[in-house]
Amino acid sequence: MPMRAQPALLAVPATLTAACLSVMAGWQRGGFLAERVLWIAVGVVLLVAAHLLPALIRSHGRRIRFVGVLLWIGCMAATCYGHAVFFLLAQKHAGEVRAAAVPAVTTTGRNPAVIAADRAALVSRLARATERRCAEPCPSLRIERASLAARLDAIDAEAAQAKRQESAQDRADAARAAAVADPVTGAVTAFGIPSGRVDLLAGLAFAAVLEAVACFCWLLALRPVESLKPNTGAAVTPVTNIKSPVVTEYRGYVPDANGPLPPPPQPVAAVIEAPDDAARVLAEIAAGRMRGTVAEIRKFLGKSQAHAAAVRKQISGPAQPAINQ
User: Which positions, given as ranges, span the membrane (predicted)?
Assistant: First the structure.
């Protein structure tokens, strides 16, 4: 089957690109090596069938085309599904790479829950020391109160530091979650559509457009080419173009045995009669719409000067009325 070069320049790269997508999708979907090879083979066969079936069934009958259309729909659905798998996995891997680029926040110090428990114990001890009374000045009690208050301040500072680290960790987690999602998908989810559904629809749309471009280009590339060779087997009928109604004839004379030699034959102009043209011209002259001159007859009939003169000669006779010259 002949192939047109210009559509093939786009059809071949589209098919190769789609084949690479099928290979990657089959490799990602399989576990063992044999499974991956079989997935790749199935994907490539369905891909080639989806691209070439419209061009191959175009010249067949309705039944073949109907079966071909059903097979083409199935091949397109399977191919688009395989490509969507590749797009989703590729998006997932890209999100993981973007998330890994977010700086990690390391927390130091104790757990905020442990700090809160220690602070509660210190507050309780400080309250008991504050309520204790002595009859005489008790330096030990004042020292205990001061030490408990200092330890409480240290616990508060440690708790504030733990809160700041926890906030930084939360911001890093939020940035990592935002990096995992596609930027366009994240914008679309603002309308209430789940991100997973958006990724699936986007993958199917990309696959459908790629397959449609490849199918259409192959349909144009494998279009039947008309033969440019001349048809030498057909019979050719000669056409004679008669340009003038005046034909020249030569009439010979039979010489008399006792008489002089006849003169050489002279050309005699024989006029081809055109009764229809003469009748039309006579009708126009009788109606007063034209004059009987050669120029007007030629203009009216749209023919040559000689033909107009012949018609003028036919309509002028002893039985005709006088015609204005």
Answer: 36-57, 69-90, 200-221
Least confident of 19-28, 50-59, 212-221, 313-322: 313-322
CA separation for the pair 197, 201 (Å, rounded): 6
Determine if residue 133 is left, alpha or beta; phi over 0 gives left, psi from -120 to 50 gives alpha, anything else beta.
beta
Interval 79-92: pLDDT, tens: 999 999 898 888 88
CA dist 89 and 76 (Å) reads 20
Residue of 45, 67, 65 lying closest to 55 (CA atoms): 65
Long-range contacts made by residues 228-231, C-beta under 8 angstroms, separation at least 24? none
Question: CB count, 10 Å around CB of 254?
Answer: 6
| Angle formed by the axes of helices 305-315 and 294-301, nearest 10° | 110
Structure tokens at 54: 């419209």
CA-nearest of 86, 79, 97 to 182 is 97
Look up the pTM and report it. Answer: 0.52
Is 249's pLDDT higher than 80? no
Write the DSSP string, 62-110.
Answer: HHHHHHHHHHHHHHHHHHHHHHHHHHHHHHHHHHHHHHHTSPP----S-
* Whether residue 122 has pLDDT greater than 70: yes
- Split at pLDDT 50, 70, 90, the class of 38 is very high
5-29 vs 195-221: helix axis angle to the nearest 10?
Answer: 140
How far apart (Å, rounded) are the C-alpha atoms in residues 270 and 265?
Answer: 15
DSSP state of 127: H
